[in-house]
Amino acid sequence: MRPACPAGGAPPPDPGAGALPDCVLAPGVRLRPVPELSTCLAYVPGLPGDGAGGGRPALHRLNVSSWLIAALCDGRPPEAVADAFARARPAPADAVTSGTDLREGLRNLLAIGVLRTRHGDSPGPDCPRKETEP
Amino acid sequence: MPPALLSPPKISLGVTEACPLRCRHCYADCDAAPKPAELGIDAWMALADRLIADGVIQFYFEGGEPLLKPGFPALLARCARDAMTLLRTHGTLIDDAMADALRAAGVGRVLVDLMGACAGTHDAATGVPGSFAASCAGLRRCAERGIATDALVILTRQTAPELNDLLRLAAGLGAERVGVLRLYPLGRAKRRWDELALSLEEQMAAIRGLDPPPGLSVMQSWHPYDRNCCWQAAAIDATGRAIGCMYLREYADFGRVAGEGAVPFLDIWRHQPAYRRLRAGTGIERACGDCAGNDGSRGGCRASAYAFHGRWTAPDPFDEALNDGIDLRVLPGHARG
Ligand code: SF4
Q: Where is the Radical SAM core domain positioned along the sequence (chain B) (predicted)?
């Protein structure tokens, strides 16, 4: 079973097949790269109005691959995300593996509320991506 | 070896040393009134803005009792907009309105201190009749609102026999986790050490006897989880001193980040030599292989090590593998203060 969307909306679409989902950072999410540790912290704020237990604030630790995906979901179209990911991603660099990892990464980031699909299954307005460099 | 991090992702803020309780072990030696030199809420707001701009993405608020600080909910809400927030409290001030305010502020996690599993033990520790019931009610109110809520308990002679009852109590109130914390020789705990402290053998027996109910997780910092987390530690006390960690409040003063003679926290982080050495962890004399294997840190807690040995590089006597026969019920002369 796919996890419910922690942002409190409908479950994220399954990006397991077909076109890649069109994802952007979810409202209020803040990325905090920690390059010294090869990681990026992602803060997902709780959203007011969610039921008990839903929409809780959380701090996630992203690995390099998830960090890259979150950084690439800056409003560019999904094909551009895929291209950039295939180029920037460390080995193995073959297209099939890269595509699979991107789908998996998008799925995970949607599930933990770091990303949302652009046209709508998380509540709230678009929020510009905020980053703080260490 | 340089410290691992160029800037701190996480920080603890001891926003006040005022508290309505009179705990016999209070590390901050709190009073009902704030200390005269404490930073006001505007100074904390400005500091929070600066820290967030410099990359802090998690705030851990403690005290004293943070909820006694005038304007605290606004500070919490400001930080929660951009960072994970954890609030350590004794919970007695969390009535329905405060629980609603915490939820509205977007608090990430509330950690409620319990000093026993029953009113007799807890209220004797706090010196305030009725505080047990109020703490339990505060914890329950947070959990009922869907706020991630933990209970904390300091392992002492008084709490040890009640630990498993406390785990069941906490689970029943809606806590998701219980943190069992070691006792530090700070503030009033230092002066009443004989009455509070257990030997390491007694502590380990209590830890090994923990039997949490299903669904409740337990955190503990004894072997094999005795971390030296100083490598990432940042803390500011109520008067604006950078002290590394709240457990170092009596041992470290790396400079002021607010008030007269203040410098930006990031400058202290990057340039203060003693702070850099502490975070780099260089020269640690001995480390426990099992604990080091857990997260790559070495030597265990620096506050405990310093308290008992008077050396920053000493092994942590709260770790079985590093204790060297030290009786933890007896504070060495230099630590008695
Ligand atoms: S003094 Fe102890 S608890 Fe505090 S940061 Fe250092 S190792 Fe961690």
A: 5-213
